[in-house]
Amino acid sequence: MSLIEVKDLQVHFPIRSGFWNRITDQVKAVDGVSFKINAGETFGLVGESGSGKTTTGRAVVGLEKATGGQILYQGENIALNKPKERLNYNQNVQMIFQDSLSSLNPRKRIETIIAEPLRNFQKLDSETEKIRVLQLLDIVGLGPDALYKYPHQFSGGQRQRIGIARAVATNPKLIIADEPVSALDLSVQAQVLNFLKKIQREFGVSYLFISHDLGVVRHMCDRLAIMNHGRLVEVGSRDDIYNHPLHIYTQRLLEAIPQVDVRHRQERQQERLRIEKIYQEQKNDYYDQAGMAYPLVQVSQTHFVALPPQAASKRKLTAQGVD
Amino acid sequence: MWKVILRRVLIMIPEIILLSILVFLLAKMMPGDPFTGSINPRAGTAEIHHLMRINGLYDPWYQQYWNWIVHLFHGNLGQSYQYHESVANLIGQRAENTLWLSLFTMVLTYLIALPMGMYAGRHEGKLPDTIIRIYTYVTYCIPFFVILVVGLWIFGYVLNWFPTTGSISATASGFSGTILSRFYHMLLPGLLGALFSTVNIVQYLRSEVIDAKRSDYVKTARAKGVPEKAIYRHHIFRNSLLPIAAFGGYSITGLLNGSIFTESIFSYPGMGLLFVNSISYRDYTVITALVLLFGILNLLGTLLSDIILGIVDPRIRIK
Amino acid sequence: MSDQTLLNIKNLSTSFKIEGEFYEAISQINLQVKRDQILAIVGESGCGKSTLATTVMGLHDPAITKSTGQVVFEGQDLLKMNEVQYNKIRGAKIGMIFQDPLSALNPLKKIKDQITEVMDYHTQLTEKQKSERALELLQDVGIDNPQRTARQFPHELSGGMRQRVIIAIAIACKPDLLIADEPTTALDVTIQAQILDLIRKIQQENHSGVILITHDLGVVAQTADEVAVMYAGQIVEQGTVQQIFENPLHPYTRSLLRSVPQADSENDELYVIAGNVPSLQQMPKDGDRFAPRIPWVPSSAHEKHPTMHQLSAGHQVRCTCYQNFNFPVAPKGVRQ
Fold it and tell me: Does any domain span residue C254?
């Protein structure tokens, strides 16, 4: 059984307009997203701005109300949970935010910030609590002198590590990391990514890693999903997505990443322009009339693609043939 | 745009109804009665009870409220117990005086505040800016009525430059004579009022100009080779004046509130003075009418601000 | 060769006044920008790359800034110019593209007016000609419906469209030099690719020179001809894009390249540069500024006063420490 399973998740935001300010339309920020995350794995959620990836993450942790669908945590639908069970879920699912400055209360000392989830979920005496906070700081490579400082006294990378320490405090099973390194410089980014991996190795935590950076996601994730206009267009293992992308959107996204490879830049540019041309020609085939991606079709053990109906039926046949 | 305005106006209707109920009930809850001080002091309680009864003051509150509203729609705001005159007439005369004084104060305010705020923002940290800031802080610290009383004492009584009471001198005659006399009477209260109300605008405008100065679009303009003067004219001032323009509607609120102080200290026969007098005489009909009027004017001021903002700011205009 | 040089920066240093004292944000910069060339300036935040750009553009408040050295553009030293002379160059001969396309446009002005404004000060065109040229420019930067866009306000456009408008403004007077400060940082990768293609295309058509300021090594590798790597206000390595990426020498360049997540690094720890970038106030006066971040390299390997060393045609490295530099076997500096 997977740790968490998101089934047909929908988050719609109403648009109000007209004279009576009635709901006249909806923004389908997330429209039928399904995925599973296994214990101890990192699942990447990749998309461009406005794709709905952040909303998905916020809905999973409960910061956004789902319009429809289910979120099953260890097989239980958390939407139906009683408050007490809900508390258990909140303790086990934590979040790391992109903007480390605004997600840490500027008026509170680091000790209080990190101790807050402990106080919410575990009743510890002050001595044990302090030891625990020091342990947590140590996990993210910060010394005891950090305890009595305020967030603004730290660099961006250090603050992000404090955010990680806070998220790890309650020994969660799943951490939702929303663009955790996109505001950081390259060398600091490397450090934060290393800490995330180290924590996973030591505590067996799973990550839902939300990012627009395909390079970082490749480094971090075992499996990933590509999101576009509120739907998943492709889900698969790292190898599936990076080496055998099938959806035109995924192909285009991958080609657009600038590589640190000077020797082949001419060829890469040609390839990118070729894919872009195909994308422009074929994009209507890959999306329905409302501009939404088609349902995912399984094409191999691990690989799912939102192929147009015609291609999908062909693919299914071959997939069955393989079986 | 029209739809938005219309909707805002419609929303105002329940607001006004609620306001009127509130105003009415508050007036009812005030202690005392309107007759004790105004009739023969030897009159007994029985006589007062009788007067209360025939004036409908013992009816249930909703009945009184309903009567009041019905009369309101007939333009009948009731009779002032104190002045023995119809409230509509009473307010009408004074509203005109208040209108002129408020308008004059507003014009003076902007004439003083705009150049000051723009100058202070542009030459931030220089000596004139420091002086302007000290002026705003000091004025901000002093209560409004103290400014008025001290101003009245110095310029009115000690220096004898301005009249100290009334809205027009008894000897004024002829068209231009009347206007000049009115203007002369408004000068000191208007100036003192403006002195006070500039503070907010100066501070606000100054910080808007400083923000705009450091904004990226000003950097873009510099990178275009636009001369400094033109940058201030076309980008910085224009953009910083936008919220100030919207402020215009709200400033009506401030002026009306201020008129209560100004008019009672200068014995200027406007709505503010009437209001204060009516309270001390428990003249319910006048108080309720005035509070309702002030309330409605404040609502209109807010509406006006929103409309101005909607017209000048394209980000809000597109609907 | 020399007549192809558009911009010649000699010993340029810029200091900012912080709490009454001046601190150097960039020091002793020497750079040439030639026609038909994209020079990338790459470094992390706080390295001075943006200060360099804004110094060339003269966008600093003279009350709190001090620049020494020379910035020779087409034979004239920009640092010696007064505002009037500078304004004849800015927008006309040097155009600038900014990082955040939303805040770089005036929210209260129509797109057309923001484009024609630059022509108001540098051309003799009539209003009608200016409007036509604005539409032409919008077309050139790849906007599908120029008439419509010209009438719109910035908030009505997408991020990519706004950046195209910024580019249209920058190239309106066909400048010889284009300075792009993190032009794609705020954009999605697919839009980034289009914008970089556009900058490249404009540069080739106008035979102009481009200074591309970025923190993104991938963008540099895919776009630049020449590269200058900056660290703590100094250029630490400079060369052609091939030299920098295929034969990086300075420890900082090599460290940066090593901390990029690569296709084959999936299961490895990423390399972390020990320590922090020194702040302006803490900048060491002497010695190699990068030395504290490679503590295992003996101090004898560093020069006392590090200078740039010419290694091969066009390839320069600061300090001699690169000769003795090797990465530690077990990654150091996970803890800071």
Answer: yes
Q: A22 — contact with chain B (CB < 8 Å)?
A: no
Distance CA C160, CA C66 (A): 35
> Is C276 within 8 Å of chain A by CB?
yes
Tell me whether strands A206-211 and A174-178 are parallel, antiparallel or unpaired: parallel
DSSP calls for A165-233: HHHHTT--SEEEEESTTTTS-HHHHHHHHHHHHHHHHHH--EEEEEES-HHHHHHH-SEEEEEETTEEE
Q: Would residue C144 count as lying in a domain?
A: no
Superfamily of domain B87-317: MetI-like (1.10.3720.10)
Helix (H) or strand (E) holding A4: strand A4-17
pLDDT 10s digits, C206-251: 999 999 999 999 999 999 999 999 999 999 999 999 999 999 999 9
pLDDT digits (tens, 9 = 90+) for B58-69: 777 788 888 878
C222: Cβ–Cβ under 8 A, 6 or more apart, which residues? A258, A259, A265, A268, A269, C196
Position B37 scores a pLDDT of 55
% of chain A at pLDDT higher than 70: 96
Q: Domain residue spans in chain B?
A: 87-317
Architecture per CATH, A4-106+172-245: 3-Layer(aba) Sandwich (3.40)
Instruction: Give the nearest partner residue to C108 out of B221, B239, B318, using CB atoms.
Output: B239
User: Looking at chain A, which residue has its C-alpha nearest residue B4?
Assistant: A19
Residue extents of the structural domains in chain A: 4-106+172-245
Residue C319 lies in a domain: yes
Whether the per-residue pLDDT at C334 is higher than 50: the answer is no
According to the model, what pLDDT value does residue C1 have?
A: 43
Q: How confident is the model at residue B20 (pLDDT cuts 50, 70, 90)?
A: confident
Residues of C in contact with A256 (CB under 8 A): 189-190, 192-193
For residue C30, is it within any domain?
no
- The least confident of A143-157, B117-131, B168-182 is B168-182
Task: Name the average pLDDT for chain A.
Answer: 89
Any A CB within 8 A of B6 CB: yes
For chain A, the residues whose C-beta falls within 8 A of a C-beta of chain C are 48-49, 141, 155, 158, 185-187, 189-191, 193-194, 197, 212, 214-216, 218-220, 238, 242, 252-253, 255-263, 265, 268-269, 272
The domain in which residue C256 lies consists of 250-324
